[in-house]
Amino acid sequence: MRLIAWVTIGIALAGMLLGAGPAVAQTTFVFGNQGEPVELDPAVITDGISNRITRQVSEGLVKYDGSTTNVIPSLAEKWSVSADGTVWTFTLRKNVKFHDGTPFDAAAVVWNFDRWRLSTHPQHENQIKAGKTFEYYEAQFGGFDDKSLITKVEAVNPTTVRVTLKSPQGPFLANLAMFVFDIVSPTAVEKWGVEFGKHPVGTGPYKFVEWKVGQEVILEANPDYWDKAHAAKISRVVVRNIKDNSQRLAGLKAGEIQGFEGLNPDDVKVVRADPNLQIILRPTNTTGYLAFNFKVKEFQDKRVRMAIAHAINKKGIVDALYGGLGLVAKEFQPPSLWGYNKELKDYEYNPQRARDLLKEAGFPQGLKEITWDDGKKEPLQFWYMPVSRPYYPNPKEIGEAMAADLAKAGITVQLQTTDWTVYLDKRKNGQLPLYMLGWTGDNGDPDNFVCYFFCSPGASREGFYTNQPLTEILLQAQKLTDQGKRAELYRKAEQMIHDDVARLFIAHNQPPIPFQKKVKGYVANPTNSEFFNTVYFQE
Amino acid sequence: MGQYAIKRFLTIVPVLIGVSLIVFSFTHLIPGDPAVAMLGERATPQRVAEVRAQLGLDQPLYTQYFIYVGKILHGDLGASILRGDPVLRDLVRRFPATVELATSAILIAILVGVPMGIISAVWRNSFFDGFSRLVALAGVSMPIFWLGLMLAWCFGVVLGWLPTGFRLGTDVTLVTVTHFNILDSLLAGNWSALVSSLRHLILPAIALSTIPMAVIARMTRASLLEVLSQDYIRTAESKGLPQRAVILRHAMRNALLPVMTVTGLQVGRLLAGAILTETIFSWPGIGLWIYESIQARDYPIVQGATLFIATIFVMVNLLTDVLYASVDPRIKYD
């Protein structure tokens, strides 16, 4: 009898617990993120995991248009710039409110700008004391207070803001379109202080509801959103923290999530083979490169660098190791950027030519040892990173392929890697002679690629490379506001970098974003500025 | 026994001092800079120096250590370098998830492992004995990462019977009070949250239970075999007692002691956080949290959480020792 009772209870429990759980409601869009956000105050974050959420809640004066990096109006209806490029006047939209009811007006915009640029602003100071930084403001606008490119921000009237710059800045609007410069509610920031990052308030199509630490962030549609034509189609969004790539895919296939970031390149074919799933490709905004340390005597000889350029079979690497999503890179900027030089001819894959160049440079037996500036000799080490990056999804395999290519050309390398933070440390300290690294653009402007790396001659970020004429061209382009003239200068800069083999660009990657087939309306953007308010379900 | 318990409890203090010193040294000796980890590809020497100064990492190590100890004595385990959140607050939020998972896993391990061990010992060298020893061997040998993935794919994706991860469905609302989802569901009378919590717990608990289950089964078998060869067991059998009574009432009481020891150790290990299981099933416990913090060089979290785990370990061992006396009245403590 007792046994029968236990068996009955067991069957009843199994019936209750097993079997398909409640289907995710059609009013909820669940997205799998690769980790936990750092926090949700756009001004002090730099990571894509956090900004995926902040972008739904807050907005900037301008934004990127759809899947391009063209800048269009957002909270500002229109703008004008003075003839000398130093005074920008923005006309703001009327009748817009933050989610907490605070009016969006010129005073709120001025407050936000002052918070970013003035180290004495109470809501700037408290963040610094808490160990946070306004990293991107400093990077894009030169620093704070007297160092800031933005010298004055005034409310001309409730719907007009005037921003004065120290000198013209070509990428100014592209910078303002970045997630970091979203306008948040001054009332909320003053109420929450450093905890505002846990209680974000903006003007966006979604409002923040809850952050379950370690698990998920919940948003709900903003019923009072100012842009009725683009109001959220799905009333609830849950962004889940799912660390493991395979588990995210399992969740998608099981229907527990409807889309996610961070698909293994090897799983692209799995998703493509599933009739219930689809892949949207993000236009590439990322470049993987091979960097030379110019403190190595051998790399100071252009013939050696050119030999390495001819030795690497980029197409072979991209075809084999990017899951069909890579593009061969011939220059720093990816093709999606308007400064891209279509006419530039890449170095052809030619191991024999590489050998000939090495012979000319005084290495008839090939190259396997290097000499540092201080005279120290050591075997040539080739460093690859230990973690998958957007520009190098399989760094170990790619490193091994490049090493094999170099060997065919007579260049013998020792493959090395280390922990990611140590890798970055060593690069910063100039300890890596030949290394893989890359860059993902922030704002869709060529300056963010080329000048970031080639405007500080001799810096460790540049691999200690110096090319004054190149730097001058880039600084000149940075100050112009005419996109056509700027594009011409960037094309010229790319040619100069190429001709001098300052760096070897290997591949651009198009990150795949998998979704369930029923998900429509998602627009991928090269800068990761992607919004859920356009998403809807269609069976 | 009370005096013994108090004496044992007081030994926690030197243990924790030692742990804090070792953990502090090791975390700071790991190569890699938290400032560089935060800044990533955008790290420049100047920015790194600024961030280090902001975080107090430019102070001498001994200064940093004494500041750290001073804060602990005031109940402050520091704040996360990355997020600024107090470590203690996050521990209180995340530890219940680990306790829920660990408790479920150890319950499964005991409920399956002990009977398996008993049957193996009683029917020694039978087919069942061989089979259960094979299962136990597979349990300790199988990589949890692989097992977890297989369980999630099989029961979550292919059969669709159970969720592939997380603690609760997205459509379930649960007001968090204790951060123990099952307890909070019962307190609120929220039936759908309870069912959802249990459904999400099954697969990670099974994955996590395999190693302790195997260890408990093997120890139960070995320990019981030794006891069954004792004279008093033969006496009990010759007195005509049913075999069930001989095993459960007489043999198991003595066989249990080594089983309790390994179970206590397994409980400590599970409570330390099952990183692989938590990663595969996106279970928001402390194991995954510590692993991410090590990667990010978030020293306060690594130090604070490790101290906390050391405390748990010592407490669990103490409890195990104290329980001995209740199981075996022959044991007396000075």
Q: How do the strands and helices of this protein lay out in sequence?
A:
The complex is a heterodimer of chains A (539) and B (334).
Chain A: H1 2-17, E1 28-33, H2 48-57, E2 62-64, E3 71-73, E4 76-81, E5 87-92, H3 106-117, H4 122-129, H5 135-141, E6 150-157, E7 160-165, H6 172-176, H7 186-192, E8 206-212, E9 216-221, E10 236-241, H8 245-253, E11 259-260, H9 268-273, E12 277-281, E13 286-292, H10 302-311, H11 314-321, E14 326-328, H12 351-360, E15 369-371, E16 377-379, E17 381-383, H13 395-408, E18 414-416, H14 420-428, E19 434-440, H15 446-454, H16 468-479, H17 483-499, E20 503-509, E21 512-516, E22 519-520, E23 536-537
Parallel strand pairs in A: 1-10, 1-11, 17-18, 17-19
Antiparallel strand pairs in A: 2-3, 4-5, 5-7, 6-7, 8-9, 9-10, 12-21, 13-19, 13-20, 14-20, 15-16, 22-23
Helix pairs in contact in A: 10-12, 15-16, 16-17
Chain B: H1 2-10, H2 12-29, H3 34-39, H4 45-54, H5 61-73, H6 87-122, H7 127-141, H8 144-158, H9 181-188, H10 191-228, H11 231-238, H12 243-271, H13 275-280, H14 286-295, H15 299-327
Helix pairs in contact in B: 2-15, 6-7, 6-10, 6-12, 7-10, 8-10, 9-10, 10-12, 12-15, 14-15
